[in-house]
């Protein structure tokens, strides 16, 4: 299950109430270049904040 997954690295945070975000763009791009899959929700956040196209 999702609750049993090990966190490899914290790449940022998002507060949906205040809309505040903080991303480590360099590390995110590193993982994406190595074919890491992200959820649809995360993909939408990345697109909204121009981390990915």
Total number of strands: 2
- Which range best describes the helical content: under 10%, 10-25%, 25-40%, 40-55%, 55-70% or over 70%? 25-40%
SS content category: alpha+beta
The topology string of helices and strands comes to EEHH
Number of helices: 2
Shape: globular
Helix and strand arrangement:
Blueprint: E1 12-15, E2 20-23, H1 25-33, H2 40-48
Antiparallel strand pairs: 1-2
Report on the structure:
It is a single chain. The chain has 53 residues and is α+β, with helices and mostly antiparallel strands. It has one domain (2-48). Helix content is 34%, strand content 15%. It is built from two helices and two strands; from the N terminus they run ββαα. It has helices spanning 25-33, 40-48; strands spanning 12-15, 20-23. It is globular, with a radius of gyration of 12 Å.
List keywords for this structure.
53 residues, alpha+beta, 2 strands, 34% helix
Compact overview of the structure:
This protein is of the alpha+beta class.
């Amino acid at each position: 299950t999702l609750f049993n997954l090990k966190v490899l690295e914290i790449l940022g945070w998002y507060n949906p109430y205040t809309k505040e975000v903080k991303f480590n763009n360099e590390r995110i791009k590193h993982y994406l270049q190595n074919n890491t899959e992200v959820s649809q929700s995360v993909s939408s956040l990345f697109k909204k904040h121009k981390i990915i196209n």
